[in-house]
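URGENT: need a sanity check before tomorrow's submission.

F., can you look over the Cytochrome P450 record below? I want to be sure the sequence and structure line up before it goes out.
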Amino acid sequence: MNESPVNTAADQPHRFDPAGGCPHADNARLLSRGAVTHAVLPGDVQGMAVLGHDALKEFLAHPDVAKNAEHFAALQAGEIPDGWPLKTFATVQGMTTADGADHRRLRSLMGKAFTPRRVAELQPRITALTTDLLDGLDQAAAAGDGIADLRKHFALPLPMGVICELLGVDAEYHDRLHHLSNQIVATDIGPQEAMAANKEMVEVLGAVAAARAANPGDDLTTALIAAREENGDRLSPHELLGTLMLTIIAGHETTLNLITNAVRALCTHRDQLALAVAGKVAWADVVEETLRWDSPVSYFPFRYPTRDLTLDGTVIPQGTPVLAGYSAAGRDKQAHGPDADRFDITRDNTTTRHLSLGHGAHFCMGAPLARMEATIALEQLFSRFPDLDLATPEPELPRHASFVGNSVQKLPVRLRAPRP
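Structure tokens as predicted:
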């Protein structure tokens, strides 16, 4: 670790706003103070955040940093109440809260659904679904004086449809699962609402699992139910439901935000959009620059040092809940240059790769799928509607009520230029 002079009492701790909002101004201020900051989480829970690119990359792959909440000191001491809005991130049983052999076991089970071959086979289906959704977006705009909510009619149903098809989740559950996902990732939710959302999510996913057990198919849920390790142990019921929950939330919320953020960025940087539409820059490069410049996840909970660590001169005490500051790292000027806060799809992102899809053992397994979905979505969207523009000024768009997810709640767009 960095052995620079130790800072044990950094500047005033950053108090995360449960209501969320745009993170970039706060990120810039925090980065000017250092790569690591003390933080106050909802409910006055003490934590920390790592937001500098180099420090975050080191932290994410450090052998003395764990994901299992058995290392969360305040939780183990009984200081975290039921209904704490971030508790699910710590206690849900699945890949994102497992370490070592448990993590490798769960990841190997999931990996069968995200092999390069399986992802490549999804391309025709994603392309066809995108075309159908653009028809629906056009119809919604026609019924709305040329304006439609792109997030609702396009950016949401695309990844939700794909991940639910992979899991074998019937369409009747899609809207409810998205609503519950939103509540689970919200940071401004009350204790009773938080517990009710988690309870209902478990009930819905239990119904999904029961349906697949009664009627097996060629889907991931069926495979997880039938999965056995070499020693014959079945995936536990809690692990099954936790894995389904994490896969649905991560499999659609992040891609939904990625597509939404890319459209916002392109519409407010028409010169960049023109380069992509003209074929001078690949749409895949648009996706990568969006991931860096406006990460779909802002601060992800949690990791816990298993011993006191010194990172960029700041001590992170053992057992502290630490947030991974992806949106901040993406605009870290020490890593991405003095123009890091500028959206530039011609930027060479190969020199310093962004961390928005993670790093190390917990790197996002669905990254190739998310990239494919977003690339196909943007190329088809702007090929069909090259004059598409925001119908509401970007600063006026309502933001997510969360400091975990990073996007807006709605994205009203005008598909065609107004007639003179």
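My own read: The first helix runs from residue 24 to 31. The chain has 18 helices and eleven strands. If you see anything odd, call me.
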